[in-house]
Amino acid sequence: MAQDTTEPKLNFEYWLDKAIEWGQATTLESQKDVCLHLPQLQQFLHQIYETLKHMDSIVAIQQFPLIGQLLGRLCWNPSVIGYDESQKTLMWCLCCLYSSEPQSPVELKANSWIRSLLCHLLSSSKWESNEAETSTFISALGYTSVDYYCHLIKNVITSLVAEIRGNQFNGLDIQARVSSSRVNAVSLFCLPIVTLPELTPLLETLLLYHGGASKEILSSEFLETVNDAFLKKKISLTESAVFSLWFRHLPSLEKATLHLLDQLVSIQLNSLEEVACVIKDSLLPQAASHPAIFRIVNEIFKNALLETDGTPEVITVIQVFTQLFIEAHQNENKQHQFPLKAYFPNHHIPLVTALLRRPFELPSTHWSQHLKHISDMLKALVEDTNISPPADLFEIWFLVACFGEWMDIAAEQLLTAAVEPDALLWLLAFYYCPQDDNQQRTQTMVEAQAVYHHLMMLFSCSVLSLKDLEVAVHSITDVEQCCNQHLITHLLTNFFLFSSGGHTIAQEVIYHITEVTDTREEVLSLLIRTAYRVNHNGEENQRTVKLLNELLQKLTCKV
């Protein structure tokens, strides 16, 4: 028998030859050879797992065509699976190959094969007799081997669920005295087979179990593995189970939030409907109905915003998340609602209350009055001499940024409604230039007012040229006024959308501005938010809708 135990990395041929040679290790010689090679085999299986866990199941099978034969033979070798570590690693590898959303008959067949192997591995340790005796017993019951193992694992799961949930007496759920060590052991038992569909009831039972212990009794590896599987959509869990997971394990909540941000920032999203759909699907807005989760998620968003230096995509994600959180909070049973102070413990609650009002809850004729109320409260807070910048000022700004829908409406109201402009311009000046002191903000206001009044003079003109807008365009492209640049970009973009003649030169001017100032993402985010609001408000001005679509198409196609 060959004694050379060296093999190249992921040398499937070498190990498949060994597995064929061993068969089911029925001879003393083959059993000894398995034992001799077991440490190297275990190392090889770990290498397989580390490779597979980063790959899609169908890609893995295509890249490693021998993997099915190898794992299948090893799973039926009692000398290999008799070693607990090998058995566990084989389960991990099989779970990586399991397709959570099979798209073809081949994937369905592969899933069935993997499930039968997992069931065999789980049940094999229950039998100390040899395989021939076990097969005779199974046949006597009228089952095939695969059917029997599937029924056995379902019964094992059902028994464990019943044990952990406790007994039912007189319709009351009385928790049975299950030891913490027993519950911990069950959570470890689940590790290799988390993605097995039959295991879901046990996963949910464990996540919802609270035995009164002062410390967490579930394995941290279990909580991390379940969270990873959920985020990768390899398993489906009830909302209550997911919320309980995040309550029990802060790293899982943090990972879920960062996963959502990465998911949204890394893919091209062309509408807020898409953004909202992805955020809702994450279950984070629903979970944030509990203040503890809301404050943690908000803190992560805040840090992400600081680290990305206020990237428009991140701000938009935070604003949509906040809108969905408000919806989830308002849908809560009034008896179970927490007070606003629990969500915003360090903020001026009247300001929070005003910001929480959704625009559709008020007649549009009351918007400017509501915005003036917000502006007045905010100005009083910002100009309070007790504020110690920059930390406190940033906290106030971040609160306003979360409810950025009102800032968009403020810019729109300045151009489309008969309003006193000073309060709304101050609100936008603070939003876009929060670091300014009172003197700087006064200068910002002077510059913004000059551009605003110039735009209002042109608002009703049906014919416009680029020369007519030189003042506004110069204010944006002048690098020395980069802070005020964002405010004026916002006003000018709305001018193109809603004025009589702005649509005729909109594409030309916006293309010029985004090229010179590198504000493409900022303008794109603004247009996406405006399109969302226009669609939901049933905008009747078809010219505005048409221009929005044209600008969005141009900017999203621009590399």
Major β-sheet profile:
2 strands, antiparallel
Query: Low-confidence parts lasting 5 or more residues at pLDDT below 50?
Result: 1-8, 126-134, 167-176
Quick one: how many beta strands? 2
Range of strand content? under 5%
Overall form: elongated
Q: Helices and strands: which structural class?
A: mainly alpha
Number of helices: 30
Radius of gyration: 31 Å
Mean pLDDT: 82
Task: Name the helicity range.
Answer: 55-70%
Cα distance, first to last residue?
Answer: 62 Å
- Strand arrangement within the widest β-sheet reads 1-2
Give a verbal description of the structure:
The protein is mainly α. Among the domains are: 12-152, no CATH class; 436-557. The protein has helices at 12-22, 28-52, 57-63, 67-75, 78-81, 84-97, 105-124, 131-140, 145-165, 180-190, 200-207, 220-231, 239-248, 250-266, 272-281, 284-287, 291-307, 312-331, 340-343, 349-356, 367-382, 391-402, 405-416, 421-432, 438-458, 470-477, 482-498, 506-517, 520-537, 542-557, and strands spanning 167-169, 172-174. It has a two-stranded antiparallel sheet. The longest helix is centred in the N-terminal third of the chain and has 25 residues, at 28-52. The two termini are 62 Å apart.
